[in-house]
Amino acid sequence: MPEDSLHETDGPARRDWKWWGSWYKASTYQFMLGFGASTMGAAMLGDQRPGWIPSQWHEVAVWAFLASWGWWLWMTFPNILPNIPELDFPKPNPDPGNKTYLVLALLGTFLFRWQWSEAWAVVLLGPCAAVILWYAGRAQNSRPYLPIFVWIISGAAALALPWPNPQRFLAVLITGGAATALQGVFVFSSFYLRLRRKLAEGC
Fold first, then answer.
1. What is the rounded distance in angstroms from the CA atom of residue 130 to the CA atom of residue 153?
2. 117-138 in b/e burial notation, b at 16+ Cβ within 10 A?
3. pTM over 0.90
């Protein structure tokens, strides 16, 4: 399909900003979730380990964290599930049990942050984050197996670092967040290809 056809009257030109907002919400929020976690960990680790990254890059990490989380919260509020009928994007059936696991995982994450000086908090952060990511993946109809695996093993692997436990905790955030952001890139690519196919069909 020629590139120009993306700009025809039956293409994106007839779609308003609400449609595009929904599309970007559906296609980017998993990336922003991972990118935000990774940059938050990098910014906080830079505070705890001066010189770990150059000062200018530390500032970049701080602003990248603020921008990504601001974007993620805006694009996912008030509903986490997108509504884009043009893309045939089915919503998963609501399951109260899954939401219970999500709430427990979120509460556990805050508990582990409170107790991050303990080794068990470092180890258990990854599995809780994996549950949160699985729920986010269901909302995008994706199966983020690789980043979930990275999250689960990153806590135990971080114990090998000769750092205090709070810094190991942040290392888990950086590693798991980077894997989630990488998964988000693939999700975005699949959404974009799906969009091009729909435009080619004259949606």
1. 10
2. eebebbbbbbebbbbbbbbbbb
3. no
Q: Which domain holds residue 156?
A: 3-84+92-200
Question: CA-CA distance, 127 to 96, in Å (whole number)?
Answer: 20
pLDDT in tens, the chain (203 residues): 333 333 333 444 456 666 777 777 778 878 888 888 899 888 888 888 877 777 777 788 888 888 887 876 776 655 544 454 444 454 544 454 567 888 888 898 889 989 999 999 999 999 999 998 888 777 667 788 999 999 999 989 999 999 999 999 999 999 999 999 999 999 888 888 888 887 777 65
What does the alpha-carbon distance between residue 29 and residue 32 come to, in Å, rounded to a whole number? Answer: 5
Find how far residue 120's CA is from the centre of its chain.
24
Q: Which amino acid is at 183?
A: Q
Domain count, the chain: 1
